[in-house]
Amino acid sequence: MRLFKLVLLILLAGSAFAQQTPALDSAAIPGFVSVNVRQFGNEELWGYINGGADLYLEYGFEEIHVFDVKAFNLDYKADLYCMKSAAAAYGIYSIARFRCRTSGTLTHHDCLTTYQYIAAKGKYYLSVSNPAGNAEGEQGMLAIAANLLNQLPEEEAEVPALFKVEFQDSDLRDLKLVTGRLGIQNGFVRWDALFGDLSSYEAWILNVKTDGKPYYVAEVRFNDEADREKFMQPNGFTGLTDSTEEANGFRLFLRGQNRLLLTEGVAPATLLENLAKGLY
After folding, report:
1. Quick one: CA dihedral 111, 116, 117, 123, positive or negative?
2. Cβ contact 28:147 at 8 Å
3. Are 46 and 53 a contacting pair, CB within 8 Å?
4. 127: enclosing H helix or E strand
5. In 3D, which of 260, 230, 239 has the Cα closest to residue 160?
6. Which is nearest to 69 in space by CA: 137, 153, 150?
7. pLDDT of residue 243
8. pLDDT grade, residue 9 (50/70/90)?
9. Could you report the per-residue pLDDT of 141-186, keeping only the tens digit for each?
10. Is residue 41 classed as helix, strand or coil in its secondary structure?
11. Dihedral sign from CA coordinates of 94, 97, 101, 106
12. Could you write out the DSSP letters of every residue in 251-273?
């Protein structure tokens, strides 16, 4: 009985630690003046980001912590989204990523632009804004981001083996994860019509160039075989099973009842051969 109570206390303590909200260390922020922290849950997200709440809810939103930071004469804002999983956090990051000046600045999955820094780490998606768009503003922005990121777990989304084996890490910076209608519309509108009215799936999509020409590779996971058929039939994919057949520029490789691999465009022969062999 005593052992059971001890184990229970350890589990509760671990749970409390895991749910603890990161707090800014004022000493780590150059010119720090003040910080105001707000928190919004599932029902309150619409009040904070009226036009974009549905996208976060589609991926699996839990809560957001907003840090309004004043340092020197600048007002920064850091949004720390807690998602349902590391994959959900990465998915939001992957479709928000755009025209990065640099990547890998503070953590593996991050993107730095003149006015914003975004990152995915563990089950968290972080966005910090730089109101000035200058070197001083960037210094403060990165200090805030680093302080929050250092308190987050190292867990990362599990990227499918296909991408980890066949492509370089530099290629994977543009790897997108979409999980529904809003995700595809915001992250890879090229395939919006392809997925039609399907509302729940997981699609890892990579846009790659070879000899200056783009091609696309995806791994798609459906809830069940019925959803997979809803995807295949309208697109004329029924009956396609391997790389010897093509429909409208697409090649399919079926994997079980609810998973498929997909290419569009002229993919390298070695990649198609490995897909046909069933390596992934």
Report:
1. negative
2. yes
3. yes
4. strand 124-129
5. 260
6. 137
7. 59
8. very low
9. 999 999 999 999 988 999 999 999 999 999 999 999 999 999 999 9
10. strand
11. negative
12. EEEEETTTEEEEEES---HHHHH
